[in-house]
Fold this protein.
Amino acid sequence: MADTSDGINHESANKEPIKKKKEKKTGLAPSTIRIGKRYRPSRLNGSYDAIVIGSGIGGLTTAASMSKMGKKVLVLEQHYTAGGYTHSYSRNGYEWDVGVHYIGDMGYPTMGRKLFDFITDGKLKWAAMDDNYDRIFLGDEEFNFVKGKEAFKNELKRKFPEESAVIDKYVHMIDEANKGMQWFTMGKLFKPWQQKALSFATKKLMPEYFNRNTYEVLRELTSNEKLIAVLTGQWGDCGMTPKKSAFIIHALIAKHYFNGGYYPVGGASKIAETIIPVVQASGGEVFTYASVDQVLVEKGKAVGVRMKDGTAIRSPLVISNAGVFNTFGRLLPEAVSRKHGYDKKLKKVSPSYAHLGMYIGLKGDSKSHDLPSTNFWMYADEKHDENTDKFFDDYKKPFPVVYVSFPSAKDPEFNSKYPGRSTIEIVAPTPYHIFEKWKDETWGKRGDEYEELKEYFSQRMLEALYEKMPHLRGKIDYYETSTPLSTDYFCYYSKGELYGIDHDMNRFDQEWLQPKTSIPGLYLTGQDVLSAGVVGAMMAGFLTAGQIMGLKGLKLAKMAFFDKQDVPEQWAVQME
Ligand SMILES: Cc1cc2nc3c(=O)[nH]c(=O)nc-3n(C[C@H](O)[C@H](O)[C@H](O)COP(=O)(O)OP(=O)(O)OC[C@H]3O[C@@H](n4cnc5c(N)ncnc54)[C@H](O)[C@@H]3O)c2cc1C
């Protein structure tokens, strides 16, 4: 989704000199961040043990893990830079991330951290955000989520003293639901019918609220709507409001950040940059500009891929990181998809909300603008579901949520790379259909009406920002805004999805959402397998590698999680 503005640079609201006109003539300067090697058929190097379609964190994790077991894996990415939603891009002296604002659990030897160290050979460094990682605004009221379970509870209890017992119970339930997730994850290694049989046993090991509706579960705990709204104030992290989402996704996200938020030192592009050498170590490669047109199926088995340029690349294993809608709806021959019932299965899941992304640059560093490393979640009031429904019925209604992140304040290397500059990113939901009429237009040339619609949303997002940070009015040097069409163009999510498929209760009942498909030789990886989020997609990537390796998967798990690895001097850099 990089280069997300569809080609136009806008003047800021402060009426500073207009960059827009000049840019319109010359076009946008291309991003200088290019991770991965440009694909050319002549650069293919003999046969590969496996092909991965897509270089999101799920695809890269599968490739790097298999490489650790000596497998030569080819990763094919259609974008000009690797990383999927973890890519970064730069323009006009600024750099932004697209799908990485904060990652939990990176400051400790957790499974997520160990896996990151494993697939990057310890080369990826982490910076701790402010202990107050998230701030929830309900109108003018502020509620802070702070690092450490006890501190988290105490801060909430300070705001809701009469709900002290509820808050304790809530945190306990979050822990229990997370324990249940390990059984759910292990179940993904079994065939769908085996999963069904096993689910009788595993359901006993999971709390009964594991896959119930988030709001219902919380409403049984308390009738305090404001507390429920605060507890679900991170709903944007799964893209589903509390009355629609499954409790397990709420619990995974809440727990993920109990130990604080972390950010990759040097920006999100460092994720792919540090994984690629591990893929290359066994002869593999990560190619960009490498669009896969179809999965080749012969005698019922996946045997390779056909590229958009017509080149056929054969391999006994094909692993798709492209999401289930792309994999079964676009990449697999229709007859094969139908034969295996994937056309019907796809009807049981739905694409997540489309989104807008705003990328802002300011002259002056983060400190000079008082930019915090805390994320802001801005809501008008506590009615998350109602406000969202109203907005999706009529996009002129207030945004149901505006999320603001300050990446330059999170990265200890930002100042040395971009002295005297700082950045802000804003994410907000949007209906897809209002952009649909331009979906077949060329990127960057969608015309004035499209630009006006983008500008309309840009101004609304800026106003939301100024409401909480009025001192920034007049300080903005540059901005651009992505739409669902940008997401499709750069990341191949045809409805501009924020998180792949929806995280409702239905999703967590789909046994076919697992690494192994029913087509021999074809596997899935990435966020649609377990859950969205960088760590969710990475865990799925590891699970896929483990399943492919069969019994050797146990050795792989031992290497990643139990063998002694060099312990870093400090688990995470503290920002000054
Ligand atoms: C705005 C936004 C903010 C987010 N913020 C956070 C956050 O702060 N913390 C967090 O943990 N998570 C966050 N996420 C979620 C997280 O980024 C994703 O869940 C995760 O990165 C998805 O990884 P993935 O492996 O499923 O693949 P993706 O990142 O979805 O990558 C799939 C790749 O496949 C490629 N592809 C598809 N089809 C083809 C084809 N035919 N040929 C070649 N390549 C193809 C695409 O181009 C894409 O690069 C955010 C997401 C978004 C959109």
